[in-house]
Design a protein that fits this description.
Helix 2 packs antiparallel against helix 3, helix 7 packs parallel to helix 10 and helix 10 runs antiparallel to helix 11. The chain is globular and about 45 Å long. The termini are far apart. It is built from eleven helices and no strands. By secondary structure, the chain is mostly helical.
């Protein structure tokens, strides 16, 4: 399994038909093992391909993904935001908007997971001025959401103070 995961991870960064075939075959083989499926989601979320955010959004519609399942959220959304620095921090701010949207949605479903997903945004001071402004704007958008949980509010508000 270690060799297969390593090979699939390396292949996930490429743009070739073999990538899609390998990912499909891996899922078909392991679809009954939730922990392995979580790894399958994470591998794709951490891909360095230019359209990874789009892939993550499509994977959120996959039958194996369930936004009410914290492990699925961490393996797909969390892996993208916390472990895919290149794609998450693109200067267009799409990664920041995406994670803010997910935090707002998860606030109603699982406030603890929503609060945990704030981590990449609250580190805004470590980035260049343009990214800082984009990240702070998303934090303010999160803070303006209706019925914000105590967990999310506390973390987000401290980050922008």
């Amino acid at each position: 399994m270690t060799d297969i995961i390593s090979a699939l991870t390396m292949l996930s960064h490429t743009n070739c038909k073999e990538r899609e075939t390998a990912l499909k075959q891996f899922y078909e083989k392991w679809h009954n093992d939730p922990l392995v499926v979580d790894k399958w989601f994470a591998i794709q979320a951490q891909s360095k391909r230019k359209n990874t955010l789009h892939d993550v959004q499509l994977l959120m519609e996959h039958p194996a993904f369930n936004i009410t399942n914290p492990n699925k959220v961490r393996s797909l959304i969390g892996a993208f935001a916390q472990n895919n620095l290149k794609e998450f921090h693109k200067i267009n701010g799409d990664g920041y908007r995406f994670i803010a949207d997910q935090i707002i949605a998860l606030n109603e479903i699982n406030p603890q997971i929503a609060a945990r997903l704030l981590t990449p945004l609250i580190r805004w001071k470590k980035f260049d001025l343009q990214r800082q402004e984009l990240m702070k704007a998303e934090l303010h958008r999160i803070l303006s959401a209706q019925n914000l949980s105590k967990n999310v509010y506390e973390i987000a508000s401290k980050a922008v103070d």
